[in-house]
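User: Hi! I'm working on a homework problem where we have to compare a predicted structure to a textbook description. Could you give me the structure for the chain below?
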Amino acid sequence: MRIEARTSCRIQKARTALVLDHPFFGSLLFRLKDCECRSIQTMATDGVSLYYNPDFVETLNAATLAGTLAHEVMHPALHHHVRRSGRDPKRWNMACDYAINPLLVDAGLNLPEGVLLDNRFRGMSAEQIYSLLDSEASQDSGSEDEEGESEGERPNADQPPAGEANEPSAPMTEGGIGQVLDAPASDKETPTIEEQIREWNIAVNQATTIAKHAGKVPAGLNRTLEGAAEAAVDWRELLRRHWSDTIPADYSWMRLNRRHLWTGLYLPGVVREGVGEVAIAVDCSGSVSARQLRLFEAEVRSILEGQRPERVYVLYFDAMVHKVETYEAGERIDLNPVGGGGTEFGPCFGWLDDRGIRPQTLVFLTDLYGSFPPSAPSYPVLWASTGSQKAPFGEVIPMQAA
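Assistant: Happy to help. Predicted structure tokens:
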């Protein structure tokens, strides 16, 4: 029997074994179509196909092959293939592996030697792990040279491996057993990203039900799925959503609601006017990293370009307001923090009250470690939080994974 045929047969047997012994993983695997690909040193998936190198498969015994297949299918089950969002492919692949492997080990599955396992990452989402790995790499400038090439790197990130003649090179990260590839672009045969996410959500729910009936639900599964669901909602989306809710809106028949036109129902559309004044308060106590500051700055610029505020006040504070910069309509906003003491949020509200300023929205960038005023203001408050604390009022947008 040729190695290709033997490998395909072994994969099918491993799938069957997983369905019987680990039905959650086994049932999910039927969503992926097998695709032999010798440019992949181990295995890879983009949420549609399972790419495998037959030479690698032949190095695995039956139990380890089953565990490796379970590892691969957990990437799309946790939406790793659609959550990279511009992050470094190498580090993202490592973060995803660190998030998945503890669940597989706890479920009693065998994995190849040297896989990425670290107890300090238990219970974390891939985004949280990535952020830690990124911080550690920044502190040790030589660490990236020592990490070597990544199994997650792809010279052409928009196209999955298709044929041996034109397959991209995909070297393997040390300790890794496979790649998580970005989801393929939609076309006549491939559904949109939103449809792929919805289909995987349905598949995960069905797999969970099957596993429950068999009495074989993996330990920690619910916690892992809940963490992935939270992380899948990007902070940028939350910031835009909550911020847009603070904009005055009215209804007009001059702009029909397109959402209902297909039903033959004609309803007035929402018309949002430009806002008046907006305030942004930046915590200067040292809790916000330079990377988070720049990401927040870029997103704020993008939001304000669409809102057309008359004026923007930027307050730099810790236990007091150190500096205030005022931007008129259309001016580019650049955030330059000063200060570095303890944190009190009250002075920001006091500064606005003393000048009779009632902003359309007050947005804080902070870790939420500090003292709050005794009562909420009369205007909306958003907290873009780099920590895990709660606020007594306003909406909190978690930025921990940024």
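For your comparison, note the following. The two ends are 50 Å apart (CA to CA). The chain has two domains: 3-232, 238-247+275-398. Good luck with the assignment!
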